[in-house]
């Protein structure tokens, strides 16, 4: 959608379907967006619209059905459904053409074209399988190359104790680099702070688990990093030896934030991190995320259903409905010029602490069958204004452009 060299995450035509009795559940259907380095991208919509599934698909908790996800320019998720569907439709289409062909030469030509389409799509499926399985390995190999380039000349030039010290550092860094996965540069803060923490592990073990998996063996280094993270999120060192059930909901969510931050990620997926908390605690957690964003230069995918919170925290906002992205714009633009009827419905539902306004507030009810006529002209995701995308057909596109003028 936007060709920017600072794009950290790019999601292209993401589809996540789940098998169910009598067919498939299209939890996420053809969703595309990108997130630039250092920004907060809000993803909003009602419960069940596919927000959380989108986040979980990006972090590879699910194998995606179709589309691609690029992180740091490397494809980390690749679905095969679109290529398989292309082969099926080509076989059906060319089967009819071959059947109705008037000459053997024409039949041969059509068969050659069909074979070419099949070969191309099989190659794409093979590339998708390779990228899905080898993205972490390639990233690790690249880290090893960089380490060799930086340490080897210094080790060769050094002598005595300095050489021994550098060699030890190099071996330790090399062991960690070989275990590092690209997907660990994306961390997730889960919605339920109770269910996302292991009740049998201490806070210290929960926060340090990622470091241990990555290959850190020095207990002193692990402890210091855990204490640093605890203090960073507003807790104290003494909390490290306690268990999750000993904390309040807000404190548990802070532990979840510390667990994500300790891995020094480039992207954090915050899946409704404040929805299970009291209003006053919500503000504290949002402010904490804001401070961490400024301190570490974090990029955040912020998933929520509360538009007022998302407006305060996000640079750009994507609105999802029924598994599809229906509108995407900057936070200011979306609230100034909401175009899609569903977006207008969500904004009309935001309450304000003003009794006079609340008496006059008119709720907009979204009814897809009444608001759209897609019987002839099907909708697509279009840019109605630079940076402002809406799901619409030709007639709606012209209508939205006239509204903006």
3D architecture notes:
Helix content is 49%, strand content 20%. It is of the alpha/beta class and 405 residues long. It has one domain (7-100, 103-404): P-loop containing nucleotide triphosphate hydrolases (Rossmann fold, 3-Layer(aba) Sandwich), CATH 3.40.50.300. Strands 6-7-8-3-9-10-12-11 form an eight-stranded mixed β-sheet, with helices on both faces. A hairpin with a 2-residue loop joins β11 and β12. α2 (81-99) runs antiparallel to α3, α3 (104-157) runs antiparallel to α4 and α5 (203-214) packs parallel to α7.
CATH architecture: 3-Layer(aba) Sandwich
CATH level-four homologous superfamily name:
P-loop containing nucleotide triphosphate hydrolases
Radius of gyration over C-alpha positions, nearest whole angstrom = 25 Å
Poorly predicted ranges: none
| Top CATH class | Alpha Beta
Distance between the termini: 23 Å
Proportion of residues in extended strands? 15-25%
CATH topology: Rossmann fold
Tell me about the largest β-sheet.
Answer: 8 strands, mixed
Across the major sheet, the strand order is: 6-7-8-3-9-10-12-11
Which H/E pattern describes the elements?
A: EEEHEEHHHEHHHEHEHEEHHHHEEH
Helix content: 40-55%
Provide the residue-averaged pLDDT. 88
Count of domain modules: 1
Brief description of this entry?
49% of the residues lie in helices and 20% in strands. It is built from 14 helices and twelve strands.
């Amino acid at each position: 959608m936007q060709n920017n060299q600072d794009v950290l995450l790019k999601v292209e035509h993401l589809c996540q379907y789940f098998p169910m009795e009598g067919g498939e559940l299209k939890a996420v259907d053809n969703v595309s967006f990108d997130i630039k380095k250092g920004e907060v991208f809000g993803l909003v919509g009602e419960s069940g619209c596919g927000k959380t599934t989108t986040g979980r698909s990006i972090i590879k908790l699910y194998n995606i059905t179709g589309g691609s996800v690029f992180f740091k320019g490397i494809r980390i998720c690749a679905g095969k459904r679109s290529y398989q569907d292309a082969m099926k439709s080509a076989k059906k289409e060319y089967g009819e053409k071959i059947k109705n062909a008037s000459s053997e030469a024409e039949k041969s030509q059509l068969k050659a074209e069909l074979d070419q389409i099949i070969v191309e799509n099989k190659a794409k499926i093979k590339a998708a399988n390779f990228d899905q399985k080898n993205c972490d390995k390639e990233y690790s190999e690249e880290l090893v190359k960089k380490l060799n380039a930086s340490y080897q000349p210094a080790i060769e030039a050094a002598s005595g104790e300095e050489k021994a010290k550098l060699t030890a550092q190099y071996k330790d860094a090399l062991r960690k680099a070989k275990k590092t996965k690209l997907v660990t540069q994306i961390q997730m803060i889960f919605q339920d702070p109770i269910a996302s923490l292991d009740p049998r592990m201490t806070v210290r073990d929960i926060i340090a688990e990622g470091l241990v998996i990555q290959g850190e063996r020095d207990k002193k280094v692990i402890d210091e990093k855990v204490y640093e993270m605890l203090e960073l999120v507003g807790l104290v060192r003494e909390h490290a030896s306690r268990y999750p059930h000993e904390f309040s909901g807000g404190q548990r969510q802070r532990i979840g934030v510390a667990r994500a931050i300790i891995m020094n990620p480039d992207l954090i997926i915050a899946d409704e991190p404040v929805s299970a908390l009291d209003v006053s605690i919500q503000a504290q957690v949002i402010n904490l995320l804001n401070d961490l964003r400024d301190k570490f230069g974090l990029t955040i995918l912020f998933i929520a259903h509360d538009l007022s919170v998302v407006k305060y925290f996000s640079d750009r906002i994507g609105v999802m409905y029924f598994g599809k992205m229906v509108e995407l714009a900057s936070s200011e633009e979306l609230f100034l010029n909401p175009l899609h009827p569903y977006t207008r419905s969500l904004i009309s539902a935001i309450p304000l602490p003003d009794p006079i306004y609340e008496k006059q507030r008119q709720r907009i009810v979204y009814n897809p069958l009444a608001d759209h006529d897609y019987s002839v002209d099907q909708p697509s995701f279009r840019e109605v204004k630079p940076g402002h995308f809406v799901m619409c057909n030709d007639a709606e596109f012209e209508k939205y452009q006239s509204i903006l003028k």
